[in-house]
Amino acid sequence: MQKKHTQYPHTTIPLAAGSGGAASDELIREIFLPHLGRFFVSEGEDAGVFSAGDSAKDFAISTDSFVISPIFFNGGDIGKLSICGSSNDVAMMGAKPEFITLGFMIEEGLGQDELEKIIKSIACEVERTDLKILSADTKVLPKGSIDKLFINTTCIGKVLKSGISSKALQKGDKIILSAPIGAHGASIFASREGIGLHSNLQSDCAQLYEMLEPLFGGDFEIHAMRDATRGGLSAVLNEWANASKAQIEIDEECIYIDEEVRGVCEILGLEAYMLANEGVCALSVEPSQASEICEILRSHPLGRYASIIGEVTEVSSTHKASSNQNLAKDTKARVVLKNKWGSKRFMEYPQGELLPRIC
């Protein structure tokens, strides 16, 4: 009799499984990995790293699909988002984004002006970092089959800084945050029909490679790096803790949150740590280099608020890094949040679905 691989507790896939938090991890761990895990080159990372022929360099590749609602938002649109999101996933592996593919799934009836505006936005972002389009595809589906427009991308880039991995955290590492958190998620909340919030808040949607390029060319020990998209900062830190069997301690006062983001969070009862970002990354770095790395990030407009927000206080010496392990079952794998009065609480792995169709 064939062994049953899955312990997935649902008979149908819940919306929360697309959140980038615990439910997403559960779906991947219980449905995908039992069947596909042995084929993955780079399990648990936003991009896989591979060698190509006789090239002296490795390459990073990432695929992503963008389904945001609304498709136009303060600070960008689905076109800009698709390039920035895919480019950033490759950059998080220490690579320079160089090539991209694009797949468009268009709902019948989408306005010509709307589509052209999105394509112009894509062209602007592609030109910004000199990306080359390798291939593209277009499908038009009957009205009601999808919501306006979905975009799939695959980005490829040459690795300039090797060894970056969520499994590579070391005891004593300093955790750096490149920018204020929550702007993308809060701005999408504010723009959704029915919520009725009026705000000047803009999404932080941006390509991060230009800010990170000096770090890739220098002699810096970057152990882990991740852009804080779905699930926000909380998801990134908990994924790192899980993968490296580490305890991470974060100083709440060091995390910069814009007042408008705080306002949206207070009105809706949200934690800014769990809101999506599209122009923010976290780094785990050699402690002696942390201050210099922060200064380099601050020299770029996207990193002007970069700061050290915490450190890795413990790493299990016997950990076997695998995203197939359950964070909740490992007491050493945790993220601790300290407030200004010295009290501590866990920064929980995001549960449920805060906001569907966020990116």
Can you describe this structure?
With 359 residues, the protein is of the alpha+beta class. The chain contains 8 helices and 14 strands. The protein has helices at residues 22-36, 78-91, 112-128, 183-191, 209-217, 232-244, 259-268, 290-298, and strands at residues 48-51, 58-66, 72-73, 76-77, 95-107, 132-141, 149-159, 174-177, 222-227, 246-251, 281-285, 307-315, 334-338, 344-346. It has a 7-stranded mixed sheet with strand order 9-11-8-12-10-13-14. A 5-stranded mixed sheet has the order 1-2-7-5-6. A two-stranded antiparallel sheet has the order 3-4. α2 packs parallel to α3 (112-128) and α4 crosses α7 (259-268). The N and C termini lie far apart (42 Å). The model is unreliable at 320-329 (pLDDT under 50).
Largest sheet: 7 strands, mixed
Shape: globular
Relative strand content: 15-25%
The computed structural class is alpha+beta
Separation, N- and C-terminal Cα atoms: 42 Å
The Rg value, from CA coordinates, equals: 20 Å
How many H/I helical runs? 8
Mean pLDDT: 91
Order of helices and strands: HEEEEHEHEEEHHEHEHEHEEE
Topology, number of strands: 14
Q: List segments where confidence is low: pLDDT < 50 over at least 5 consecutive residues.
A: 320-329
Strand order of the largest sheet: 9-11-8-12-10-13-14
Helix content: 25-40%
